[in-house]
C-alpha cells in the first residue's frame, strides 16, 4: 500500500502539473489575443449581424474559462500571480516587436515584396511597421484593462464563492466574467484607440458595446465547457484531493 507521504507527494505533483498546464493555456491565449487585437473585423460581413469586433476577442473566452478554473482550484492569489506574469511577458513580447520595427530592411526583401498578388505597388516595411506599431497603443490599453479586469474577476469570483460555497459554479464563473469584462471591454479600446489612436469616443463605445455582448454570449454558451473542465480535473486529482484543493483556494486570497 502507498504511504501517506507517497500520496501527499503524488497530489503535490498533480497540483503543480495542473497549475502549469492552466497557466500555459492562459498565457498563450492572452498573448495571442493582444497580438491579433490590432485587427477590427466586420461582424456584418462575416455573420450578417450588426457591429464590429477586435480579432482578439475571438479567443478571450478561453482566457475567461481558464481564469475561472484557476480561481476555483488555486484562489485569487493563483489568478493574480499568473496574470502578473502574463502582463510581464506581453510587455516583453511587444518590446521585442518594437525593436524589430527599427531594424533596417534588406533590399532584396523589399524588392521581392514590392507588389501584391494583383501586381499593385506594395511596401512591406510600411505594412509591417503599421501593424505592429499600432499594436503598441493596443498593448498599453490592453495591459491596463487586462490587469484591472483580472483582479476584478478574481475578487468578484471569490465574493460569489463565499455566498454560494461549492454550489453554483456557473454563477460565480459567469457573474465574475460579466462584471470584469464590462470594465475591460471599454478600458482597452479607450486607451488603445482613443488616447493613443484616432478613434472618436462614439466609435470606442460602439465597438466596446459589440465586444462586450460577444463576451457576454460566449460566457453563457461556454458554461458546459466549464463544467466539463471541472469534471476532468476532479477526476484527475481525485474526489478528496479536489475538495482539499478547493478549500485551500477559497482561503488563498493574498498574492
UniProtKB/TrEMBL annotation:
It holds the Pfam family Vut_1. It is a multi-pass membrane protein. Keywords: Cell membrane, Membrane, Transmembrane, Transmembrane helix, Transport. GO terms for molecular function: transmembrane transporter activity. Its main location: membrane. PANTHER family: QUEUOSINE PRECURSOR TRANSPORTER-RELATED. Involved in the import of queuosine (Q) precursors, required for Q precursor salvage. GO terms for cellular component: plasma membrane. The chain crosses the membrane at residues 18-41, 53-70, 82-101, 136-157, 169-196, 216-233. It is found in: Cell membrane. NCBIfam families: queuosine precursor transporter (TIGR00697). This is Probable queuosine precursor transporter. It comes from Hymenobacter busanensis. Belongs to the vitamin uptake transporter (VUT/ECF) (TC 2.A.88) family. Q precursor transporter subfamily.
Amino acid at each position: 500500500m502507498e504511504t501517506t507521504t507517497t500520496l501527499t507527494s503524488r497530489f503535490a505533483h498533480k497540483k503543480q502539473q495542473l497549475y502549469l498546464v492552466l497557466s500555459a493555456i492562459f498565457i498563450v491565449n492572452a498573448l495571442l489575443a493582444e497580438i491579433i487585437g490590432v485587427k477590427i473585423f466586420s461582424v456584418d460581413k462575416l455573420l450578417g449581424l450588426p457591429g464590429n469586433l477586435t480579432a482578439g476577442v475571438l479567443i478571450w473566452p478561453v482566457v475567461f474559462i481558464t481564469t475561472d478554473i484557476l480561481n476555483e482550484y488555486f484562489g485569487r492569489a493563483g489568478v493574480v500571480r499568473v496574470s502578473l506574469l502574463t502582463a510581464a511577458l506581453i510587455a516583453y513580447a511587444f518590446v521585442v516587436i518594437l525593436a524589430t520595427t527599427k531594424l533596417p530592411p534588406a533590399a532584396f526583401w523589399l524588392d521581392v515584396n514590392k507588389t501584391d498578388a494583383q501586381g499593385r505597388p506594395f511596401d512591406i516595411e510600411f505594412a509591417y511597421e503599421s501593424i505592429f506599431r499600432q499594436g503598441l497603443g493596443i498593448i498599453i490599453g490592453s495591459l491596463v484593462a487586462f490587469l484591472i479586469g483580472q483582479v476584478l474577476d478574481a475578487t468578484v469570483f471569490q465574493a460569489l464563492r463565499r455566498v454560494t460555497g461549492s454550489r453554483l459554479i456557473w454563477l460565480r464563473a459567469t457573474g465574475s466574467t460579466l462584471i470584469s469584462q464590462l470594465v475591460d471591454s471599454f478600458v482597452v479600446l479607450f486607451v488603445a484607440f482613443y488616447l493613443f489612436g484616432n478613434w472618436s469616443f462614439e466609435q470606442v463605445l460602439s465597438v466596446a458595446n459589440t465586444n462586450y455582448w460577444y463576451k457576454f454570449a460566449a460566457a453563457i454558451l461556454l458554461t458546459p465547457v466549464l463544467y466539463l473542465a471541472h469534471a476532468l480535473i476532479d477526476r484527475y486529482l481525485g474526489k478528496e484531493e479536489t475538495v482539499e484543493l478547493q478549500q485551500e483556494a477559497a482561503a488563498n486570497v493574498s498574492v
